[in-house]
Amino acid sequence: MPRLSPKEDKNKDSIHWIWFVLVVIIGAWLRLSFFSSMEWKEDEQNAYVMAGNFLKHPTFLPYGLKTSMGDIYELPLFIYTTTLFRWLGRTPLGTVVWVVLLNIIGLAAAAYGLFRSRWRWIALVALAFFAVSPWAITFSRKLWSPDLILPFLIPALALFVRVLQKSRSRAIFPLLCLIALASEMYLPTVALAVALAWTAWRRKVQFHQPSLMAGIGVSVALFFPWAVFTMVSHFTGEARLQLISPFKFISIFVSNAHMVPLKHPFSFATGWEATYALADDEFMKFMRWPCGWLTGFIHLATAILAWPFMEGLVEVIKLGHTRDAEPEYATAFAALIFFPLFMLMSPIDVYPHHMIPAMPYVFVAIALGFFAIYRRVTPWFGDKAARCLVGAWIIVSLVATAAIYPLMMTFINAQGGSSGDYGVPYVLQK
Questions:
Q1: Helix extents (H) in 321-358
Q2: pTM of the model
């Protein structure tokens, strides 16, 4: 391939920047749309109340919200952050707007990091699906701990690539600090940390020992008070059964085993399986609303994304499974393959939101899949026709995916709320 002149290369960089900025603007607009219709259920209300109590009576918090594991509580970082947002915002809407703005900053950080990568068109397609995904939007605009890991996770993954690229890199210290903060914000991120550590061990990465020890020290210090509180005071009842009883562990593992690890990431990427937000009967109504052919076509257009998604997974497995794989592919392999497997082997029931730490790489897989399809069809149709066909497919898929969230929100508002996971939007609650 002929090299571009400095002027042509600069112009090409400018074009990429324009596209990246446009995608971030679209993603920001979608995240701020229907803002008053945000989710406002028990967890969000409890976090808001706990933050208000902390503002009135500041004290050390050893724990946060209660988890789905019985007597196990989350770490308190989310409540501290919510307290800051409540102090700045004063009202529920004013509090959550800071969550949205932080996620928009995370989206912009992802755009900047992807722009600097070697595969800018792949990065642009990945970012575009990240910006319009209805579940990425949903999980960036409510008062819930998974909504706040993106600003920690995006730079952490970039630093992990750096650690794999350069022997004894000092980047290991900020990497461990960011992963610890993301894990303290949302505990399932620990499984992603295990996946990254496993990847580094397989590649026999040489660490900068002082930075490694300092990072481990900070991580232990962040988790120590919560760990002591959990083991001494609240490691009882259902939580103990789930983590200690071999029969309980086997039953949970079996219940997890039937769940295909890639099912939920695909749902996140495309907006398919809206039953996570809607009840089963509501979903069937939604498939025919506002007119059956429109919503049906949109869901069909997103369902066909299963092909590029699976092609992308094949690319990630093929290029990232070896010990000497390129760092970007090795990181994607850790997030998309190791992380779901470690989650499935954990003694907890796995829910769709537990896959959120892998979400950025789900969109990378879709982008890689589209380019794999382009390479496959080029010998049949020629380069120009293949570019047009795949480009049109990407555009139609993006438009269909972007349409699902506003359609779903107008549907939920029109029927006065949902009996599914979304509940009654804030604006409709008295």
A1: 327-333, 339-345
A2: 0.87
> Distance between CA 177 and CA 222 in Å, rounded?
9
Sequence-distant (6+) residues with CB within 8 A of 222 are 75, 180, 181, 184
* Separation of alpha carbons 403 and 147, rounded Å: 21
User: Please, are residues 336 and 196 in contact by the beta-carbon 8 Å criterion?
Assistant: no
Q: Which residues contact 335 (CB under 8 A, 6 or more apart)?
A: 157, 192, 195, 357, 358, 360, 361
Sign for the pseudo-dihedral over CA of 367, 372, 373, 378: positive
Using the predicted structure, report yes or no on whether residue 109 has a pLDDT greater than 50: yes
Phi and psi, residue 35, nearest 5°: -65, -40
pLDDT tens per residue across span 24-36: 899 999 999 999 9
The mean predicted confidence, pLDDT, of the chain is 82
The predicted-structure confidence for 240-249, as pLDDT tens digits, reads as follows: 445 544 444 4
Q: Is the predicted pLDDT of residue 57 greater than 80, yes or no? A: yes
Buried-state track 305-342, b at ≥16 Cβ within 10 A, e below 16: bbebbbbbbebbeebbeeeebebbbbbbbbbbbbbbeb
Which residue bears the tokens 């009654």? 424
Query: How open is the CA angle 162-167-173, to the nearest 5 degrees?
Result: 60
